[in-house]
Write a structure and sequence with these properties.
Length: 171
C-alpha cells in the first residue's frame, strides 16, 4: 500500500497555482525550465521575491547559469514592478538543506507564504519537507516543460527520498 501511495505521489503529484505569495523558492536543478518559469510567475504578479538555491557544489555551465540568473536582479516588469532575485546557499547540499535555509530566510523576513518550483517527480517530496519546516502556507508546482527524466528513474530516486523524509524529518 505504501508503495502505491509513493508511486502515485511521484507520478501524479498535486501541483498548486496560488494567486499571490510572499516569495517563490526555486530548488536546485538544471535540466528544465524552473528558473524561467519562476521568473514568469513573478512577472505575472505571483510575487516580487524569488529565492534560488545555489548549492556550493554547482560547477561549470550550471554554476554560470545560476550566477547570471541571480545577477539579473532587479527585474522590471511591464507594469513597472520590481522583482528581486536572490541566490542562497543551502545548509547542506540536499533538498532538506534547501528547505531549512529557505524557511529560515522566510522566517527572518516575516513571510507567511511560499511557492516552491521544482520538477514533476520532486513535487510531493518537496511539499513534505516544506510542510515539516515552514509554518506558513506552502504551495508547490512543477514546470510547463518537464524534465526529461524517465518515470522509472524518478520513481526509484524519489522512493528513497520519501523514506528519508518520513523517517528523518528536515526540521
Amino acid at each position: 500500500m505504501a508503495g502505491l501511495t509513493v508511486g502515485s505521489a511521484v507520478l501524479h503529484p498535486q501541483v498548486d497555482s496560488p494567486g499571490r505569495v510572499d516569495a517563490i523558492v526555486v530548488v536546485a536543478g538544471a535540466n528544465d525550465d524552473r528558473y524561467v518559469y519562476a521568473r514568469h510567475l513573478a512577472e505575472e504578479g505571483v510575487t516580487d521575491q524569488i529565492l534560488v538555491s545555489r548549492p556550493p557544489s554547482s560547477t561549470g555551465a550550471y554554476a554560470g547559469l545560476l550566477d547570471a540568473y541571480c545577477a539579473s536582479t532587479p527585474v522590471r516588469t511591464r507594469d513597472g514592478r520590481s522583482i528581486d532575485i536572490e541566490c542562497f546557499s543551502p545548509d547542506i547540499d540536499t533538498t532538506e538543506g534547501e528547505t531549512t535555509a529557505a524557511t529560515r530566510i522566510a522566517r527572518e523576513r516575516g513571510w507567511n507564504s511560499l511557492l516552491v518550483v521544482t520538477y514533476w517527480g520532486h513535487v510531493s517530496r518537496v511539499r513534505i519537507y516544506f510542510d515539516q519546516c515552514f509554518e506558513g502556507a506552502v504551495y508547490v508546482t512543477d514546470t510547463p516543460r518537464p524534465l526529461s527524466k524517465s518515470r522509472k528513474d524518478a520513481l526509484l530516486h524519489e522512493t528513497g527520498g520519501y523514506v528519508k523524509a518520513l523517517v528523518s524529518p528536515a526540521c
